[in-house]
Amino acid sequence: MRVIAGSAGGIRLAVPKRGVRPTMDRVKAAIFSSLGDAIIGARVLDLFAGSGALGIEALSRGASSVLFVEEDRQSTNVIEKNLAKIKFEARVRQQSVSDFLRSASGTEKFQIVLADPPYEKTQSGERFTEMLLTSEKLGKLLAPGGVFVLEKRPGEALPETKLWRVDRQKKYGATEVLFLSATTASPARTNQQGVQPPRRAIE
Predict the structure, then answer these.
(1) H or E element: which one contains 172?
(2) Torsion sign over Cα 14, 154, 127, 120
(3) With contact defined as beta carbons under 8 Å apart, do 88 and 58 qualify?
(4) Model-wide pTM > 0.90
(5) 11-41 burial, b if ≥16 CB within 10 A, otherwise e?
């Protein structure tokens, strides 16, 4: 795995030996191509950070800061190792995403939230996509006009929620990428899945 572009472009990153599903370079390139200049100077939140590849790509392309949230200790060690290798500074929090969202005050806002959750279900039997898309706390962490980028399994139904609008979506093999924006319940026309329909596909 490598950093694709920016100040650290071409540098290879370490990957945890277990428990992660790294985002393919093709998918990562598409995500940041869609974000474009929005990444420059952005405060970024990387949930289910794994090796930290998405957040590190954001830093390489000009993000002002990244907060990595990852529950697994081996993975947070790898994130810190990768940050040291490319001489970037960022905050790394070893905590489950559900605990992080429960304890988040909402005073710190992020222009971009990245999430590549596990495809399996949570311990309580809930899908991770459902946990994220029904979390009011997550919406409060997103700055006005901010973007939530979510990777999920293609064909996985979205939960019924009026908190988010799907602006763009695209499938890449075994991964589907959604670009979402926070919305309110009342004025929105929602589709049969309860999530507002996409305006256009990812370029």
Answers:
(1) strand 164-172
(2) negative
(3) no
(4) no
(5) eebebbeeebebbeeebbebbbebbeeebee
**Three-class DSSP category at 99:** helix
The Cα–Cα gap between 186 and 199 comes to 18
- Token readout for 49 is 């950070």
Residue corresponding to tokens 């990777």:
151
Tokens of 24: 């393919």
Q: Which two tokens stand for residue 203?
A: 């370029």
Q: Are strands 164-172 and 142-152 parallel, antiparallel or unpaired?
A: unpaired
pLDDT in tens, 99-138: 999 998 878 999 999 999 987 666 666 788 999 999 999 9
At residue 50, the 3 state secondary structure works out as coil
Residue 120 CB burial class (10 angstroms; 0-12, 13-18, ≥19): exposed
Could you tell me how far CA 56 lies from the centroid of its own chain? 12
Strand-by-strand arrangement of the 110-115 sheet: 91-94, 65-70, 43-47, 110-115, 142-152, 175-182, 164-172
DSSP 178-190: EEEEE--SSS---
Digit-coded pLDDT (tens) for 145-188: 999 999 998 888 888 888 999 999 999 888 999 999 998 543 33
